[in-house]
Amino acid sequence: MERRTLFKSVVAGGIAATVAQAAQAQATQAQSADAGLPPLPKLTDPGERRGDMLYRKLGRTGESVSAIGFGGSHFAKPAIDQAESIRLCHAAIERGITFMDNSWDYNKGVSEERMGMALAQGGYRKKVFLMTKVDGRTKQAAQMQLETSLDRLQTDCIDLWQFHEVLRFDDPDRIFAAGGAIEAAMEARKAGKIRFIGFTGHKDPAIHLYMLQVARKHDFQFDAVLMPSNVMDGHYRSFAREAVPVALRDGLGVLTMKPFGGGPGVILKSNTATPIECLHYTLNLPTSTVITGLDNQAVIDQAMEAVRTFKPMDQAQVAAILAKTATAASSGEYELFKTTSHFDETAKNAEWLGDDSPQTLKLAPKNAG
User: What's the predicted TM-score (pTM) here?
Assistant: First the structure.
C-alpha cells in the first residue's frame, strides 16, 4: 500500500473512531442524566406506509389513523382567513392526513366552524377520523357543548370526543361525579352522536394517572388519551415515561401533541433540536398520531417530510437526542404548558367548566359564607 493511501486510511479510521466515541459519550451522558427514571416506552410497530404517510392502530378501537394529526387550533388563527383555513385542511387530507383535531373552545368556535366547512365539501368528512374536545365538567355543560360542536362541524357523529384540559386533580372527580360530564358522554355514545371517549391534559402525568384510576373505580375504560410528547419531556415530569406505559397496558390509543412545545415553537428556541428531529423523536414513541399545528403550506410540507423520512430510531439515536436536550429540559423552562398557566385556557375561563356538582352545592351552597 502506498504511503499516501495508508495515511488516508489511518485518518479516516481515526475520524470514524472519534465519531463513534462522541456518540457513545452522548449516550452515556443521557443515561447518567436519566438514571433512576422509568424507561422510555419503545415503538414496536411503526405503522403501515401508504405513499409518504404512515398509518397506525388507535388502541383497541379497530381504527387506523395517520401518524401525523392535523392540529385544530393553529389553522384558524385570527391572522388566517376562512378560505385559507379551508385550503389548509383540504391540502393536509390530500397528502394523507386523516386524523383531525379540534376543540369546542378553539378560537372561540371558529376552528370547529371552519373545519366543518372544509369537511362538508367534496366528501372530505368520509376521509377522516374526527376528534373534538369538551370543557364542560357537568352533564348539562357537556351536553350543550357537544350539540354546539356537532352543529359547527356539520356532522351527525364525532369519532372521538375527549374531556379537554384535565389539568387539576379535581377534574376527574367532577367528570365522574353524579351529574358529571361522563354521563353526557355515555348517553351521547349510546345515541350515536360520538363513537369513542377519551381525555386530554398537558400539566402533569400524575393527573393523567389519577384520571385513569378514577375511571377504573367507576368501571369505565377510556378509548384514547392525549398528552404532550417532545424531545424534552423525557427529562421533566415525563408523560412518555409515566403515563404512556399505563395507557398502553390498558389498551388506549395514545395521541400526542406539542412536539415543538406549543405556541410559536418554544422548544425550537432552545436551539437543541431541529424541527425534523423533534417530529422524528415523537414518531418514535408508541403513539397512534402526533398532532401538530399546520397553519401554512411550509409546515405541512415539513410534517410530511418528517414522516416520509422516519425510520425507527435505535437506543443510541434516542440517547443522543436526550443528551442534547438534557440541560435545557431539566427545569421545564421550555415546556411552559407544564410549568406555567400560559396554555391553561380552562383556568382563564372557568365558566366553560360548568357549575359545581349537585353534591358539592348541597354541602356548600353558594353565598352561604
Answer: 0.90
